[in-house]
Structures are given as C-alpha cells and as structure tokens.
Amino acid sequence: MMISKLNRRAFIQVGALGSGLSLSQYLRVQASQNEEQNHRSAIFIFMEGAPSHQDTFDLKPDAPAEVRGEFSPIQTTQPGIQICEHLPMLASRVDDYAILRGITHNVADHGLAKKYLLTGNKSSQTISYPEYGSIVSHQYPSDSKLPSYVSIDEAFVGPGYLGSRYSPLTADKPRYGAKYSVRGITLEEGLTVAKYKSQMQLRNDLDLAFQGFENLDDQVQGMDRFSKQAYDIISSPEARKAFDLSQETREETDKFGKHEFGQSLLLAARLIEAGVHFVTVRLRPAEFDFDTHQDNFSRLRTLLPPFDRGLAALLDRLKERGLLPTTAIMAAGEFGRTPKINGSGGRDHWARAMTAVMAGGKIRGGQVIGETDKSASEPVGNGFSPDDLAASFYSNLGIDPKAEFSTNVGRPITLVREGSPISELF
Q: How confident is the prediction for the chain on average, in pLDDT?
C-alpha cells in the first residue's frame, strides 16, 4: 500500500497505537555515534524551597545570635572546613565533594529562580530553556531499552527548545517498604510481557507504512519516541529490574534511610548503574520543604538528617561500584535565605548568597570554593552565578557550555549564555 498524504490528525491517531520504529532506528544510530561518551551520567538533587546556606554549609559562628542561629559547626575530615552539626555523615565524607559558597543572583521569586537554577539561564519571554537532564538526554542517549532521563517526581521546567522528545520519564517518589511501580512501565494486572509483545506486532506492521516521515511535528515525534521506549522498557528485564527496589537487601535499603528522599537516591543509584544517563531528584513539599519562613531551626532538625544520610549513602554506593568518577552530582536549591532571623523564627528568601555541593566526575573534593562575608549576606569578591554553576556541571559531563543548539525561534542559542566553568573545581 502506498501512502501519498497523511494529515496530522490521522497520524496522531496511528501514533497513539504506538508506531515508532522509524524514530527509534534514528535514536539507535544516534546512540551508536555517541558510544564513546555513553559512560557519562549525572544526578541533580534539587533542594526545592531553598535551604538556608548559613545553617548547612556556610555557618557563621562568630556572628550575632540573630544571624548565626541555633546550630553549631562541626569539623570535617579536612582541617579548616566546617559544616552544620546536623550533617555528621557528610562531614566525614568531605573528601568526596566540594562546597561552593558565595553563589549569588538577584531572582528571589521561587518560580523564576527555579527555572534559573535548573537551566543555567535567566528566564526569557522568547526562549524556553531546557533543564539539565534534557540536554544530557540529547547529547548522551541511553540504550534503547532505557530512558535517558528520569525525573523522580514531575519535572518543573521540561525540555524547552529541544522539544518533547527530550522530556524525562517521570517516576513517583518511592516509599520505604512499599511496592514500587512506575506509570507507563509497570505492567497492568493480568498483562504479561508475552501478551504485551503480541499487542505491539500490529504497531510494528503499521510503522512500515510510515517510514520516511522524518519531518513530523514535535508533538508526534515525542509521542512516537515515548511509545516505542515504553515498549522497549517493559520488554527489557534489565530495565524493569533497575526500577525494582525490592532487589536491594534490607541492609542496603536502610543505609539510605526510611524516607522518600533516601529511597529516591537509592533508586537514582540503581538507574545510573543500569545505564540511565541523568536523574533529577526533587525535594519538595510535603515531606521536604526548605521554604522555612517559620520555625527554621525545628524544621531543619527534621530535614537535615535524612539529607545527610541519603547523600552520604549515595556517595558511598557510587564509590563502591566504581561509578563516582563517571557520575557528576550536584545538590542545590534556588537561592539562599536571609542572614537575619525573622520574628517567626524563620529565614526569608535571599538570592544574594547561597551554597551548592558538587561531586563525582572530575570534581576535586575536600575543598571549599568561594566565601561570603561575616553575616553570610553576600559573596566576598564577585562570587559565582547560577550560570557559572551550570557551566561547571555541564563541563563535568563533557558538554561544552558554549555549544550552540537549534531552537524554536529559528536561530542557534548558546547552551549557557553568561556563565563559565569554575576552574578551581576540577
């Protein structure tokens, strides 16, 4: 049968059935071309709501009480480097990560600041910038049986100008001791892999009629890609195993902590081990809310121990399995919090100073880069921007932050417009 013309509505209807081999063939070729780079991977831990820098990694014990707060610093394994007393496990592993102090910007609104931190570019009315994972998915596609990018909890920004083909596979946060399933991947009750494969045969046959439609619009191409990828993942024992936290021993599970954050990092580790190239872990309400306008210290006494345990376990796991040298890790919020404690015992939004932690890849651990003044109000010197942070993260992944990408506005756009890699990190 020859098909000379196909309208968009008809093709979407067929796409809904799952035709996708033509696009998947392209993705496999692209993956093959990137074979030498496919060992690159990353985990971004987004501490949404913005933790107070002066109560975590940038304490000021000599400041007045209304600035220094209730927490005391403790010594790490590196002389001269101190962090919060509620982060003892990370204090004993400081050689595995670098602390960045004096990151600064002027966007104190949660929504706009999140976009800034998740893309490395300030929001624009004309350009929708992609988040980190979408760029990595574009540059380093995983094996066809695995998603390239997984967001544990829904993505906030999305693929931007790259298009829906580079959206993440969204996974819910796992709960300790509960059976875990992934929407669109876990088989429905009564449906076996064999039955699922037989249902796909019609889709494969249909695809033969539509090969050559390389210039499909973005929505159809995205549907094509996700339909085929879902089939590959469900059909792949390796992929389904990667999402199966029941494969872990109780001892290993407990190392990460009996909370959503720790279990999310355990899942992130399993996905990286299986061959996924990027995982975003979002810490956000209700269990984790760093937006501490009230009761800052009592809330951080609850929030920081799980963060401490989970990140320490992740570093240990990746080191033990030889993956830390090829896995870039970054943990950051969207801004810092006010130097002075407010009347409700909290700290408000403060974009002029914040911290971040980076590890893995070529990061040189056991060091603090940057400095803030005596009240943690602003950086000493010029400080670093979120653009610099993004440029450093991409550089650690082997991606040139000055690379140009085609966009929906008809002109090439530099990946990170303003920032430069922070050379002291490497």
A: 83
